What we know:
Layout: H1 3-11, H2 19-30, E1 34-40, E2 46-52, E3 63-69, H3 72-75, H4 78-93, E4 101-102, E5 111-117, E6 120-130, E7 135-136, H5 144-164, H6 199-215, E8 224-227, E9 236-240, E10 250-255, E11 261-264, H7 265-277, H8 283-295, H9 302-329, H10 334-337, H11 339-354, H12 356-368
Antiparallel strand pairs: 1-2, 2-3, 3-6, 4-6, 5-6, 7-9, 8-11, 9-10
Helix pairs in contact: 5-7, 5-8, 6-9, 7-8, 7-9, 8-12, 9-11
Amino acid sequence: MSSQTDQTLRKWNKPAFNETQATGLVEREYGLTVSEIKPLPSYDDQNFYLRVTPSEGNEDSVEEYVLKIMNREDSRNPGLIEVQTLIMKFLSDEGFPVATPRVTKKGEIMFLESIDVGSATQGYLVRLLNYLPGQTVATIPVGPPILYEVGQLAAKLDKTLAEKFHNPLIKHLHRGNFIWNLANVPLLEQYLPALNQDRDLEMVKWVIQQFKLKVAPKLSNFRPCINHGDLNDHNILLDTDSASPGSPRYRVSGILDFDMSYGCYVFEVAITIMYMMIESEDPLGVGGHVLAGFESIVPLTTEERDALFLLVSGRFAQSLVMSAHTVRLHPENEEYLMITAKKGWRHLAKLLEAGQEAVEKIWFETAKQYN
């Protein structure tokens, strides 16, 4: 396969359904009449917001959904998407603010839609999830109470799955070389050509090298669990629980985008810290509040705490490198893909300049104040 052909196929990885096609899918498979549809931002899947015409007798009700069309690569692994969807339903039943799937007219939680793309036929898995209202963390200045709640929620989610979710399909969550698993930071080396030969590249190379030396040899000592793996500032929704609009108090009202895999408890808290840093005016101060919330449910071991700085740095590297790589494949989606990168490079530089000892002191002393 030529490199040009390979790049073309990679571009086809993200679905490219138009609104008319998406409306047709919903009406054909779910028997719903779409009254409003609009695209939602996404990374490598395709999402549409839908409002449907209420059924007879329920004219006053409003039904809102998100049509989620999976990328071509993930669509080749229906067992993975099925178990992720079953986990969402399980967590919803456990009281977590999670979207759940609407079944098709055939009673299925997802279906495969095949379309002609160029000279080939591609299949994409499709689900219809109930719409969760709220504002993303990225759009609201959040303080210690929300950061603590987010950390606590991350730990509760992982712990609940570890203790209560038992399904043979969880084997699909062992995803090997899944590039977003924090254990796979060294795999970023193959994507480094996406970066310019400057300070950014040197920072990422340093993080990868330190990860190989200090984290990789200890991975087997970290306690394993299923990770949400992407609790970023666009995947956590907030809603107000205060009657006073002048001083609204926010609470977490939704968790989105369950692209899950097997990982470790410390991976989840590191990923969450990294993403909560993005929009913060005090990025280095964020970690202690998130950590305190997480450790109120799942206290970290000494080895896990010792790895936290490099794991947070590693997630920065993953996000920034993969954004740069994906922009090369999908330049039309640059605005969404580079959301994190706009501030991410500055935050990573600040993190590394401060150094592990100084950053850990801030995080751990802040967390200690909650005891």
